[in-house]
Amino acid sequence: MRFVIATLKMAVGSLALNKLRSLLSMLGVIIGVGAVIAMLSLGSAFGDYISSQITVLGTNVLFVRAGQFQHGPLNTMQTLTVEDCEAIMEIPGVRAVTPLASTSATLKAGGNATNTAMIWGVAPSLGEIQDCQIQRGRMFNDAEVRRQARVAVLGPKSAQDLFGDAEPISQSIRIRGVSFEVIGLTKAVGDQGGFNPDDRAIIPYTTCMKQLPPRRDFLPMIMVSTFDKADLPTVTAGMTDTLRHRHHMHTQTDDDFSIRNMAEILDTFQAVSLGLTMFLGTVAGISLIVGGIGIMNIMLATVAERTREIGTRKAIGAKERDIMSQFLIEALVITLGGGVVGLALGWGLMEVGAGIVRRWLTLDPTLQWWSVALSVVISTLVGLCSGLYPAWRASRLDPIVALRCD
Amino acid sequence: MISLTEITKTYQLGSQEVRALRGVSLEIQTGEMVAVVGHSGSGKSTLMHILGCLDSPDSGSYRLEGQDVSGLSKNRLAEVRNRRIGFVFQSFNLLPRLTALENVELPLLYRPGGAESNAAARGHARQVLERVGLAQRLDHRPNQLSGGQNQRVAIARAMVTDPAIVLADEPTGNLDSATGVEIMKLLLDLNAEGRTVLIVTHEPDIAAMCRRHIRIHDGRVAS
Ligand SMILES: Nc1ncnc2c1ncn2[C@@H]1O[C@H](COP(=O)(O)OP(=O)(O)OP(=O)(O)O)[C@@H](O)[C@H]1O
Ligand SMILES: [Mg+2]
Fold first, then answer.
1. Distance between the two ends of chain B, CA-based, in angstroms?
2. Which of the listed residues B13, B17, B18, B215 should we mutate to test ligand 1's pocket, taking the one with most ligand atoms within 8 A of CB?
3. How far is the C-alpha of B114 from the C-alpha of B121, rounded, in Å?
């Protein structure tokens, strides 16, 4: 132990003496470990995002949006109607359809409690499209939709903000000056990164369109679910035909709606994520191999430079395994030092990567304990692989030859 | 103490054979102070290396304190060097990045089991450095010390393990004669403590300070 500590001190000392050389020799490990850490953190954050989107939005979901993106803001489009919804329901393969009029507003309860939440105006069929289970109370029914009932189903976070621990069911809340009765509470599913179903008020779409200002007659969006993922292409084609036919459109004109396939979007994410992982994995692999070779090279040079030192150590009683561990420890100090810097670099890369994709989706990667452990393992492996041969060479040096070397 | 019989050592230099030792036999008793003299290239250093268990002879037998060391494993030889033998070199062979104290401590680090604690090893190394008159220089590195001081550090390093035998290969070769005499005094002190001391030297006045002389000529003991 004493030997290890003394050797560590000497190794750190000799690295500190040659700062530039040490840094250069560490570079491969730094980049390699950095890439591995960034790859794994971003990859797992992507994976989490995708699976959360899948659980919350459902995989077999299509969004129909009024107008094309280039046509202007969603709420000014006057192309989708409730009758379109009914027509879509007739298409084979469609499981459920709901209009979706969404907005965001401040909810108020008695007293001063407020909560800014998403308002989703939907039909009761939302439950067949998206995972939104009711934990207490109930979902509104078709009759309430028809008579534009002022009823709301709250997410647990909104309920907590407004009522604390008091019972929210049957309480009254106000949205844009209109008062609603709380009839249900959804189960907590957690923040999905930019979209928090727990911070949401679900109300009948009729009430949302006719009673909440600004009042309107047209639907901004329709959510459709199919029975099977395989039905998505045929249902998409069917919807395009049906809507174009219903909207009396010429063959040449563009659609006055756009259909987005959740699964396709998620597939794209998955492909991006895989591509990123493969790129970083390749960078990591190459850097680690090149870095390892560089360290082996430097260690061989060190052994040659210090032949006399090795001879002296042997003369005063160092065994082969003492010399071997000395040079292995030096190699490990280089790679573990590189690993620590690489970990910091990986963290930085991860934040930068997350910052870039945050323009499209909320990604919240965190540095996990296992990535720290992994960088230690990788650094140790590279250190052992690149240090073993030079250390063995050093340990086998004939002390006579080593002492004669001047 | 030391008993060599018909030791030979031949080096292979390319296709050429260099017969450095051609049958050396000698006996050295415990507590002797011996000067090994002879022309350059006669085989003095080779003999010292074999005596110091750094090298093994091609033939002949070497008994050290009654034990035949020719058959020992590399690890056992390292232990013998660490426990029984202290080396002093012409060019000091201190580790340049370590302080005097750390250099002296080094042999203790290679003690198996590390029986001595950190503080004990350090304290012991300090004591030995004080004995060679370097109490004020503990934290100096070799390049901050004079040649004579460096050789004192090297002697302290050889003493720290309390060896029975001290082997010095031209310990004064790199020093002026006054400093050389001081170093010789230290070696004589070690001998006075009962240690067996062998000194290779070219200088007659250094050799004159030793009771016994062994003259090596062409790989053989001449007298
Ligand atoms: N490793 C080696 N390879 C080849 N030849 C060697 C080796 N070591 C020593 N020799 C040869 O062995 C002979 C004896 O060398 P040694 O070093 O023992 O002489 P020495 O008496 O110590 O000389 P000096 O007084 O100059 O130090 C020399 O001819 C030398 O060239
Ligand atoms: Mg010599």
1. 19
2. B18
3. 9
Tell me how many domains chain A contains.
2
Parse chain B into domains and list their residue ranges.
2-221
Cα(B44) to centroid of ligand 2, in Å?
Answer: 6
Q: Note the CATH number of domain B2-221.
A: 3.40.50.300
List the single residue in B49, B95, B118 with the smallest CB-CB distance to A312.
Answer: B95
> Is residue A27 in a domain?
yes
Nearest Cα residue in chain A from B115: A2
Q: Are residues A72 and A171 in the same domain?
A: yes
Among the listed residues A331, B162, A18, the one whose alpha carbon sits nearest the alpha carbon of residue A323? A331
In chain B, the DSSP E strands lie at 2-13, 16-28, 33-38, 59-64, 67-68, 85-88, 165-169, 196-200, 212-217, 220-221
Print pLDDT tens along chain A (406 aa).
677 888 888 888 878 877 888 888 899 899 999 988 888 888 888 777 777 766 666 778 888 888 776 666 666 677 888 888 889 999 999 999 999 988 888 888 877 777 888 899 999 998 888 878 889 899 999 999 999 999 999 999 899 888 888 888 999 999 988 999 999 999 988 776 667 888 899 999 999 988 887 788 888 889 999 988 888 889 999 998 888 888 888 777 778 888 888 777 777 777 877 887 888 888 888 988 998 999 999 999 989 988 999 999 999 999 999 999 999 999 999 999 999 999 999 999 888 888 887 776 667 777 778 888 888 898 999 999 999 999 999 999 988 888 876 5
Å from A318 to nearest chain B CA?
Answer: 6
Same domain, A318 and A210: no
Chain A residues with CB under 8 Å of B111 CB are: 317
Instruction: Domain of residue A393: give its range.
Output: 2-54+267-404
Read off the amino acid at residue A36.
V
Domain boundary among A255, A277, A292: A255
A406 touches chain B (CB under 8 A): yes
Residue A62 lies inside a defined structural domain of this protein? no
Which positions in chain B touch A323 (Cβ < 8 Å)? none
